[in-house]
Structure formats: C-alpha cells, structure tokens
Amino acid sequence: MAEEFKYSCNTASETLEWIHAIINFIAPYRYFLDAHVVNFFKDRLWEPVDKEWMDCLGKESVGNLLWIPSGVVQDHWPGSLKEFILTLRSLSLSREQADLQEFSGMHIASLSNVLAQGMNHKKKHEVEALSALVSLVAKQVGARTVVDVGAGQGYLAQVLAFDYQLSVIAIDACSHHGKITDARAERIRKHYAAKMRKNCSEQREFSVPKTVTCRVLSSDTLRALSNSPVENDHAGNQHLSQKCSVSQPSRLAEDILPSRSYSDSTLVIAGLHACGDLSVTMLRAFLECDKAKAVISVGCCYNLLSEEAIDIADSCCGFPVSQGVKSAGVMLDKSARDLACQSADRWRGLDEHAGLHNFELHAFRAAFQIVLFRHYPNILLESPTIGRQGKALRRQQNQRILESNLHHGPSESGEPRKSVSFLHEYSSIQSSKSCKSRAVDGYSLFVKFCESGLGRLHLPHLEDTAYSAIWRESESYFELIGPYWSLRAALGPVMETLILLDRLLLLQEYDSDLEASLLPIFNPVLSPRNMAIIAKKIRK
Q: Where does the Methyltransferase domain lie (predicted)?
C-alpha cells in the first residue's frame, strides 16, 4: 500500500525530487492523460484500464465514484486500485485553505458594500483574501505600488487602492474592462467623498487605480511597465487609461506612466487568475525586473498554456518553465493540461443525481462523436466545439428523476431509497419509460443532444435510424463512463501539482536570495484554483 509520504518543496532539490516522483509514477498511465473523453466509444478508451478495476467500480455507488479524485478508497477494492488512488493523493499538493489570519500582521476584512458591488460570492471571497495578502507582502518588502496583471474589471485593484491605500496599475488586454474599471473606481471615489462630507470628517485624498490596456505577451512588455517610476497619485479621477503597443516596450514606459520619480520605487506584481501563459510571464518579469520585489500569482486556465518549444533552451513557453522539468523532457499536451483543471473538491460536492447526470452527458457527447465520425467525418478535422448543452438536459433530467421518485416512492420502511451502484442507478433511470409512459428516456435525450449539436455545427439532422443504431451500439458501455472518468479525474490534482511545482522550481533555480512558496489561500470548493505562488527578493 502507498505510504502517506508527504513531499516538501522548501528547496529546489526537494521540489525536483517531488517532480521526478510524479513523472515516474504517471508514466505507465499515459493513456489516461492523452485521452480525449469525447472519443470514449470511438477509441474504446476503457480497454487499457485494468479490467479488475473497471469491474469493481462498475458496482460502486455514484457517491463513491465522486470521492475517487479526492483520494478516498473503499476497503474491498483491489489492492492495486487502492495503491493507484492513494499514491496520487500522496503526490498532490494539499488544497485545504491556509489560515491566513495566523500570519503576523495579516487581517482579512470584509469588503464594504460599495467595493463588493458586482462581485459574486466567489469573487468577493477571492478578493478579500488576496488583497489582504498582497498588502501584507507589500509591507514586508517596503513597496507602495502594485501592478495588477490581468486586472479584468478592476475588483482587486480597487480594493488595494481604496482599502489599503496602495498605488495600483491595473493592466488588462481588454479596453472595455479598462473603461469599466475607470467608471467603477470613480463611483467608489465619489461615494467615499460624499460620505466624508456627510459625516463632516476630515477630507482625505483617495488613491485611484491607473488602468492600462495592454496585451502582455512577453516579460519585456511587463518589465517596461514595471520599471517605469510610478507616482503615488491621489488626485481623484486624474488616473491613466491608455492603450499601449507591445511592439515598443521601451516607448511604453514613457507614454503610459508618469515621468516623475519618487523615493519609493519598489513594487509588487500580483495577479488573480491570470490566464494561461500570463501567470508565467508575471514570474519571469518579477525575476528580470529590479524594482519588482515580490510577486503573488494565482494561475488558472492550464489548458491554454503553450508548450511547443520544449527543445529550445531559452524558450518562453508556458510549460515547462524550469530547467529541471525541461531536462526531464516532460510534455503534457492539451488533454493533460485540461485534466489539471479538474477540481476534486467540486467532484465530491456533487450529489449522486448531479454526478450521474454529468456521467450521462459525457456518454452522450462521446456517442455524438461517433455520429460525427460516421456521417460527417470532415468536420472532425476542424476539432468542432458544440458548447455546453447540459443546462436544458439537466432540467429534463431533474424532471425525470422527480417523476421516477414519484413512481417508486419511499421504501417499505418509509426511509428514502439508499445509494445503489452506478450501473443499477443508470439502468433504473433508463428503464423508467417502460414503467411510466410520461417519463423521458435516455434515447430521446440523446437524440435531442445530437440535434442540438448538429444545429450548432450547421449540419443537417439525420434519420432516426442513424441515431438509434449508434445508441444501441454505445448503450451497453455507458456504465463504464463513470468509473473511467473518475479514475482519470484522480490524476487532475497531480497534473496541477506538476505545473505549479514547475513554476516554483523556476523561482528556486534563479537565486538563493529569493524566498518562494506555494500557499492555498482560497476555499477550494468556492475557488478550485486556490494555490498562490508567493516570492520575495531578500534584501542583503
């Protein structure tokens, strides 16, 4: 049985040891990483998986399948299956939210209604935690300026400016986001100014974020912004909102940012879910920019990382970025990077009906792939995307479950019906039509799924016989979807761990006068991408 060995990443050598352990363990399971679940039936993806595992999990309840990505096993499972799942758990970073209040000088305050306006619960939770952390780190390194990379609508930037009185440059590629940030910041400024007048309190100046519309494609561009002196401007709405060209980074600094210098020119680079390569660009800019004394990066969208230039020593791809991982010759490809976005916490938060429905949607999409393969093969050359079709089907599924429960009623003892196996639950739902003519069966939902998908691809519908033939061919393997997808999703936390350790190692390889760590700063159920990379340059 796998030992509960906790790896550490306090030094470059420890981090590299952990990375090699991951690489060595996942090598025999490459078929999971490279699989594209839409090809489940077409490529018979279940065949490489240990048959004993699949037979065992086919008898498990949906609830037990949903806990597999979290590393939870059952005593009666085969030893090799338990070994696989428990080893994956031991190789994964812990995502349990750290108690940030334990950090000296750290205080997470609830946002005022005016600052929280427009934020959903998830965003409010993220901004409250990250803004407090950025403020603490800025204080530790003696910086008064923050560059918010991938600022979006400026939620983080505005909290840092108004609540923590930091000078903030908010960078985003979308000019519309910049306009929203400016308008929102002005409303907040006026609100606080009016409140002070009403309370007859002493008028104070407010720091307003400076917005920069810029597609940050390289660390050179970000470094040009960061290296420019920024004045701590409290002049109300006299903030900056200008477009910039990535082709002239040196001119960028002159045109966009204030020219007057002030004594404190150090800064912190921060990013809340900076997408794809942008999170890596932030780290490189931090290493290359003298004035950047700290970086706090929370990444996301690993599927959008670039990794085409692994054989080029000084490449600026998004993965791998460290010399240690480059030397190991690791490539993930998009399917494996997609897998890194899976959230074990979200999986185990699903109830059985929601989990069953997700498995059913995967089955429909995989069967629809055979429809395309057989009847529209040319469209597959374009890697078609049909979007998310689950909402309408989920409503119909809920209605179907309700009707099924009304038909079956409670058990003879009066208690709710207990969990049943994935196969039994699936079969009971599929047979509901024979028990109640009004119930919508799986086949009719599959036909609707196909017709919706074909419509999105602007393709003509098929005769019913074409759908029914593929349905009959695929249906007998539907019960394999849940076990397969659960096993594959168990690799997700390890894939994310590999990507994050690669980034951490990049920092650890750079200089001994640098502190770098990984910290889970959000509730992983609310915000699955909750790992922050925090690095500070140590003053000599």
A: 122-307
- What's the mean pLDDT in 385-408? 53
User: Rounded distance, CA 100 to CA 130, Å?
Assistant: 10
Q: How far is CA 421 from CA 326, 412, 498, in A?
A: 44, 20, 33
Q: In angstroms, rounded to a whole number, what is the distance separating the alpha carbons of residues 342 and 88?
A: 14
pLDDT tops 50 at residue 258: no
Q: Which residue from 363, 338, 487 is spatially nearest to 29, judged by alpha carbons?
A: 487
pTM for the full predicted model? 0.84
Residue 146 in tokens: 């923050």
- Looking only at the bridges linking them, the beta strands covering 292-300 and 267-275 are parallel
Q: How far apart are CA 124 and CA 134, in angstroms?
A: 15
pLDDT tens for each residue of 223-242:
666 655 544 444 333 333 34
Tens digits of residue pLDDT in 135-185: 999 999 999 999 999 988 889 999 999 899 999 998 988 877 778 878 887
CA 231 to chain centre: 35
The token pair at 82 is 């338990």
Is-contact 150 298, C-beta < 8 A? no
CB 365 within 8 A of CB 38: yes
Q: Please, are residues 83 and 1 in contact by the beta-carbon 8 Å criterion?
A: yes
pLDDT of 283 reads 94
Q: Where are the alpha helices (DSSP H) in 163-270?
A: 175-198, 219-227, 249-256
Taking the CA atoms of residue 262, residue 266, residue 272 and residue 275 in that order, the dihedral angle to the nearest 10 degrees is 100
CA 468, CA 446: separation in Å to the nearest integer?
Answer: 9
- Integer Cα distance of 152 and 412 in angstroms: 56
CA neighbor of 384 nearest in space, from 395, 372, 399, 402: 372
How do 292-300 and 145-149 pair as beta strands?
A: unpaired
Residue 516: its H or E element: strand 514-520
What residues contact residue 531 under an 8 Å CB cut-off, 6+ apart? 93, 95, 298, 299, 496, 500, 518, 519, 520, 521
Q: Around Cβ 202, how many Cβ atoms within 10 Å?
A: 6
Q: For residue 417, how many other CB atoms are within 10 A of its CB?
A: 12
Q: Is 200 left (phi over 0), alpha (psi -120 to 50) or beta?
A: left
First to last CA, the chain: 47
When the pLDDT of each residue in the chain is averaged and rounded to a whole number, the result is 81
Question: Does the pLDDT at position 250 exceed 50?
Answer: no
